[in-house]
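Data availability (excerpt). The following record was deposited with the supplementary files.
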Amino acid sequence: MNQPNAAHDVLNIVHAYFSSADARDWDTYRRLHADRVEVDFGGVNDDSAGSVAADDMLRSARELLGPVHLTQHMISNEVITVDGDEAVVAFYEQALHHHPALGDDPGVNTWVLYGRGEHRLRRTDDGWRLVAAKLTPVHQTGNANLLADVARGPSQAKIPRE
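Predicted structure:
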């Protein structure tokens, strides 16, 4: 059974999840999660995989995304299913990551990941909370090592040489 107002509320939580990460609004990011989250990012971030404490997921997101100059996560084609206090949002995702300190070459300073996502949510006394996040990567362009390169520092980046 789909519940129109609940579907809208659930979609807002999923949008806020991505927007808060892009804005580095870590208080909001944490508040959107249940205390434990089942995570499968398809090998993109194995530090956050399996059943993860929300505080550990927050720490991992801060460490990975915090140093990146620009991120923009966009979702589309959302299909929302609400059944009582449980909800699932399936979507397509495009995630842009950019750091100009890695140079002028977009093949080095930019990474775009495309995938199919699925978030499961549960209604609590405090509102809807994310209880599971899954990403299945389907394509990528640019520097797939960008997050690691930024973490190492631009001078240590593994820049392909011709």
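Summary of structural features: The mean pLDDT is 90.
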